Amino acid sequence: MTVTHHLRVHRSDEQLPREGQLAWRIAEIASDPVEVDADVVDMIINRVIDNASVAAASLTRAPVSAARQQALDHPVSVNGSGSTVFGCALERRTSPEWAAWANGVAVRELDYHDTFLAAEYSHPGDNIPPILAVAQHVGSDGRALVRGIATGYEIQVDLVKAISLHAHKIDHVAHLGPAAAAGIGTLLGLDVETIYQAVGQALHTTTATRQSRKGEISTWKAHAPAFAGKMAVEAVDRAMRGETSPSPIYEGEDGVVAWMLDGPDASYDVPLPVTGEAKRAILDTYTKEHSAEYQAQAWIDLARKLHNERPALTEPANIESIVIHTSHHTHYVIGSGANDPQKYDPHASRETLDHSIPYIFAVALQDGTWHHVDSYAPERAQREDTVALWHKVTTAEDEEWTRRYHSIDPAEKAFGGRVEIRLTNGETVTDEIAVADAHPLGARPFAREDYIRKFRILAGPVLEPAEIERFLALVQRLPELTAAEVAELSIVAAPGVLATAPAPKGLF
Q: Which ranges carry the MmgE/PrpD C-terminal domain (predicted)?
């Protein structure tokens, strides 16, 4: 039975006790020794596979290579065995905070893993790299790792359901820092006081503006969640040494809510599990079939359908206008409502095009498919007929689709909308889609075989066949793994693959 934690700002002279603070409640949940349900374990395995898939596909990309080099240029820290780095030999280790950094960037680089959308946005799979890195370093077994990941998902999803960050232009990774710290606390079996201090520091150090996802989007977009994971590892380390953190971090009169969110009169109701209740929030989340912002998933599927049914729609000469009627978020963040000219720029960065629904819909409509590399290639974005069609696509907010986007009823919650295509011959083509095909309520919900197929497709070009089979055999026994086997829960690139990646030099 879920309970609601009422969160509001308190003056310093009110002396809010720790037991009434959200960070303390998060810590209590993290320290609860409740077991993980079997269906949650299965989904955790799916998401570890999913993370490895998208990490494999990004191994040679410049941001991932830079983060990997930074990690490898640091020695393994003391008091542990160190942690693996995606792509590297299993015996090549670094310290857990730097492994969390490198692997977090690899997972996020292509914007191709799981998502949860409510009051805020999130990619809760970002919890896995820091929790796994610590598990490898300290020698945790598979059961402990599963419990830690379940907590990370639970806390992030619960925060995302209640507290909007983007409304105040705060980046969504501010929910990730506390979640990852809590997950590490569960993994290690830490006491409530220690986890409480770690959660406070993790939140305090991971609040930043949303400029990382606005205008000309930079390579920091992939680094931001990795930074939050790295900060979570460091926050736990500091808390374990007996050090304290800003408190009350959420409720204080100079705290996050009062000055970064809805102000001193704000209040939120955060849904949290009661003591002894299983952590099941991962089952509310969903992954991506396509490498694009989640709000684009359904639109790629609809464009693919229209491509097959109405081939004439792919020719810009036949089109007068394309208007996508959708939710507030899709319109203002990745649509024309953002007023970002970069979203219509054929020379824009991949990160920018990934957040341009006009571009994504136009390319998917013309190609009838979507590819994590080819669909973003400069020659694809700059194709004359694509630019002509792309510039005819606009978005508009539709109140009903906004309402459905924010619905708490899973059967009603939607991330799509309605498209109206006016042809030059006077005809109007309309169609709509509520959720992506891969969504749990979609046309083809993702199951274990889909996660495995995604892994094989993305890992095939960079991993040897034997390595693909080794990883899949290992990860599917996740709750039974020994500490030694958890230490091998990574992917090793085929010989010569990493040599093709950029090797940037820096300070380290």
A: 290-478
Give the span between the Cα atoms of 294 and 117, in whole angstroms. 9
| Separation of alpha carbons 361 and 352, rounded Å | 14
Q: Which residues pair with 421 in a beta bridge?
A: 322, 429
Q: Average pLDDT of 475-498?
A: 98
pLDDT band at residue 421 using 50, 70 and 90 as cut-offs: very high
Diameter of the chain measured on Cα atoms:
73
Structure tokens at 482: 């020994």
Token pair listed for 201: 């520091």
Q: With beta carbons less than 8 A apart as the criterion, state whether 351 and 363 touch.
A: no
Helix axes 96-108, 220-240, angle to 10 degrees: 150
Per-residue pLDDT tens for 299-326? 999 999 999 999 999 999 999 999 999 9
Domain ranges of the chain: 35-247, 294-433
Assigned CATH topology for domain 294-433: 60s Ribosomal Protein L30; Chain: A; (3.30.1330)
Under a CB-based contact definition with an 8 Å cutoff, are residues 419 and 298 in contact?
Answer: no
Contact 30, 186 (CB under 8 A): yes
* Segment holding 325, helix H or strand E: strand 319-326
Q: pLDDT exceeding 70 applies to what percent of the chain?
A: 100
Sign (positive/negative) of CA torsion 155, 128, 214, 408?
negative
Structure tokens at 346: 């054929």
CA distances from 360 to 70, 101, 449 (A): 33, 29, 27
Indicate the helix (H) or strand (E) that contains 369: none
The tokens describing 113, both together, are 């893993």
Which CATH topology does 35-247 take? 2-methylcitrate dehydratase PrpD (1.10.4100)
Sequence-distant (6+) residues with CB within 8 A of 418 are 324, 325, 326, 398, 401, 430, 431, 432
- List, in sequence order, every residue forming a beta bridge with 6; answer none if it has no partner: 269
Distance CA 24, CA 248 (A): 9
In whole angstroms, give the CA distance from residue 90 to residue 88. 6
Could you give the CA distance from residue 165 to residue 179 in angstroms, rounded to a whole number?
15
Whether 35-247 shares its CATH topology with 294-433 is answered no
Residue 448 CA: distances (Å) to CA of 45, 48, 49, 161, 454: 9, 11, 9, 26, 10
Q: How many CB atoms lie within 10 A of CB 275?
A: 11
Task: Classify residue 306 as left (phi > 0), alpha (psi -120 to 50) or beta.
Answer: alpha
Distance between CA atoms of residues 106 and 366, nearest Å: 29
